[in-house]
Amino acid sequence: MALLPMQCHGGLAVAALLALHLAVAAAQSSPAAAPATSTPVPTAPAKSPPTPATPAPTATPTPPVAPAKSPPNGSNRQYGQWGKIVLQTVMAVLLLSLAL
């Protein structure tokens, strides 16, 4: 009967690691939580200012704008995929080492 408490603690450790693994896997597979948005409250339209009697001067030509940065390449996604693989492998090794 001396092994019973040790077996119980080992089973709890395995159950805790399994729960942690499932929580991490669920967090990685679910999309990021969208920020809470408030519903817009309808308001009365603002009155427009009176139009000026003279036309507005023409705008000066704007200088060309630098092109936007290109989207990040796939290496960031690859690092994320490898992170998932490493984490799941480590969790599997831990579970197997505790089970044996």
TrEMBL record:
<feature type="signal peptide">
    <location>
        <begin position="1"/>
        <end position="27"/>
    </location>
</feature>
<feature type="region of interest" description="Disordered">
    <location>
        <begin position="31"/>
        <end position="79"/>
    </location>
</feature>
<keyword id="KW-0732">Signal</keyword>
<feature type="compositionally biased region" description="Pro residues">
    <location>
        <begin position="47"/>
        <end position="70"/>
    </location>
</feature>
<protein>
    <recommendedName>
        <fullName>Arabinogalactan protein</fullName>
    </recommendedName>
</protein>
<feature type="compositionally biased region" description="Low complexity">
    <location>
        <begin position="31"/>
        <end position="46"/>
    </location>
</feature>
